[in-house]
Amino acid sequence: PTILRSDYRPLAWRVESVELDFRLDAEQTLVTSRLACVRVPGASGPLPLDGEDLELVSLRIDGAEAGECMRRTERGLEVTPGSDTATIEIVTRVNPAANTTLSGLYASKGGLFTQCEAEGFRRITYFPDRPDVMARYTVRLEAEQASFPVLLSNGNLVDSGELPGDRHYAVWEDPFPKPSYLFALVAADLEAMERSVETLSGREVLLQVWVEPGNLDRAGHAMDSLVNALRWDEETFGLELDLDRFMIVVVADFNMGAMENKGLNIFNARFVLARPDTATDADFEGIESVVAHEYFHNWTGNRVTCRDWFQLTLKEGLTVFRDQQFSADMLARAAGAEREASARAVKRIDDFRGLRAAQFTEDSGPMAHPIRPDSYQEINNFYTATVYEKGAAVIRMQHTLLGAEGFRKGMNLYFERHDGQAVTCDDFVAAMADANDRDMTQFMRWYSQAGTPVVRASGQWDADARRYTLTLAQHTPPTPGQPEKLPLVIPVAVGLIGPDGNDLPLRLEGDSAAGATTRVLELVEAEQHFVFEDVDAEPVPSLLRGFSAPVLLEIDESDARLAFRMAHDADPCNRWDAAQRYAERVILALAAKADADVPEAFLDAWGALLADESLDPAFVALAATLPGEGWLLERMRPADPAPLRAALMRVMRAIGERFADQWLGLYQRLEVRGPYRYHPADAGCRALRNLALRYLAAAGNEDGLNRAETQFEYAENMTEQFGGLAALVHSASPVAEDALDNFHTRFSSDALVLDKWFALQAGAWRWDEAAPPVLERVKALMDDPAFKLTNPNKVYSLLGAFFRGNPAEFHAADGSGHAFWAEQIIALDAMNPQVASRMARSLENWRRYTPALQTSIRTQLERVRDADGLSPDVAEVVGKALVG
Ligand code: ARG
Ligand code: ZN
Q: Is the CB of residue 212 below 6 angstroms from any atom belonging to ligand 1?
């Protein structure tokens, strides 16, 4: 069934308080819930209680059997109390060990954990499971002491003790009203790293990171990140931790990254555990950002939450923006004053690259939706790049338009007005508008229009008038259900580069004097002209600096001009972008013409980038990385993975061969000495050295391969060890197989490290044409004792890396990859619909492939659609893909 945003109605009842009592057991957990309910004055109607996969033991209203006052409905139960206040007591029984969905209460490695967002609480007890029902929770947990020595829930521990029969209990009280999706409990054998800090107002708070026994030496980075996040929110927004205790708990089986349950964040192990010899720089960075993200939710999400799930971007877009700003500030601080701008740019490029790869492609497919969708079938399918990443970009534009100070004023007003409430995206933008005296009516279209807007730019220089006229036009292509689009408010940060490569001071028509070299233009009409005065020579425009809007820029630029911007654009984001555009152009041309050579001019431009020692290694590592295959397929019509892969290989070989000396020189010069530290300068060097090995390995360069092997064998940190391994696998070298075996043996008991090992093989290219198809290896790896279809990390690293990260192998002409996809989706769906649905989405953009591939994919999409007992999750994805 389709749920519509326009169908929202407030509930006729309020739930004042919730008392939960858990008799925990792996197979039979008994849950007693006592709800103090009050009818909303003037409202009428029953109280609907959602429930899913529950065994109802009893339901009493004010102490009496419910009888006539209760009936079963499609979604659960409906209760009609006889008066305007009622205490409803519900007893249910659930089986955590049998719950493979990882939603609700489930077992993982002998412990019990919960995941309630979005609609998992209804899998624990009957409840009005919607975010606008905010209540105070008291939770009593009781369990056998030996199996479940640690008992945690939200808020403050108010009582605990031992019970006869080797049992024990704990009582937790959360002082803040919260929606049910923020409820959590943990009962497991865990150890805590603890730190106590003083908050802004001088309160002492206890921070804990709970991990499996033996893993405390991997918890330090998460703890440091938490402390940094806490400080940052105080300094940047004046927002303080509001509880006496804040806990992070690690779990091995988890559908997503992490969850912001009030005071009890639960994390996928991969976003907590890190030690230099087991985690890469990228892992350290990911941990810092996810720990901060969940912590920031305490205000943007928990204190002020969503009225309904259509408003998801209210908390997610805003919180992603906050974590991006935080990470940029952390990088800038570590880099030091001189390198600060470059460090920020690297983070910005990384974020934009992610947006382009995941969100722009989503926006051009059958699942395209506005950041605030109008309808959904299954809300779990809408934790998307659009809601998160484009949502963050929409918040960033408000930050750009209002300035940091104006944005802060808006945030202050937002909390002043809405603390403790469940609100909408309109409420957020209204606070921004009111605090800054600005009309943001047109801006709101970003919340309702799907699709990636296209900004078309052209410039005209008038030598006599010494004027440069920049014409910007915008349009948004149609998306499913939205044929017509209106003009948006698009902040376009602009610079003009003079022939000498330096930025011109800008004077717009009407300005009295020339000012900054970058200006933010506001494009609000379908087409607008912007006139710059005192322009003595034809400039090269640099548009959307810092990726000032989530749009696609179309501009006619010669190869020479791209090379010029690659060398001179003062905005590192646009320098990167120029390199990407040039590479995209060259690769797509090569894919269309199998016998063409890699153009010399392109190689020269690339060489200039490598030779520029003034650039930060971290930046060069990004700029010298070819555009992702997924993005290139998006730009290729029809998308044809095999010739594209061949073109990419040719370009990689050419860059590796032609610049072998530079790569080897960089490799030598940038070696990081001393013990590992997670630091942007060191990480940048490691990234560029690992990239050097990749190119050298692709070109079959012997020196390079030797270095990769040495680095793999002797590195003392995972970034370098895995970098060496990846380079070997990224070559036709016969050493690769031994190295893979060796790595497997070394880390056979480390699940997170093995995830990398699976992903590397599933995403491998076939540099040796005689090697068997990667599909065969993926199938074999599924039989590895470490692989489990029930563990989402394993599925994402093996199947995800193959379906999403290896298009040339996945889309093999014989259709074997597609048939395998269907088998796996059907198998996964029976266990875990959320994971199945995420994997299913890897074929949604099938209509852009060649006719032969389309035929093969359609057959498999239909096979999945027609499978028995398909979940609503997968049904929505496959259904929309087939409708188009
Ligand atoms: N709120 C969590 C986060 O942003 C994600 C939870 C996703 N849950 C889900 N069922 N899709 O970090
Ligand atoms: Zn979030």
A: no
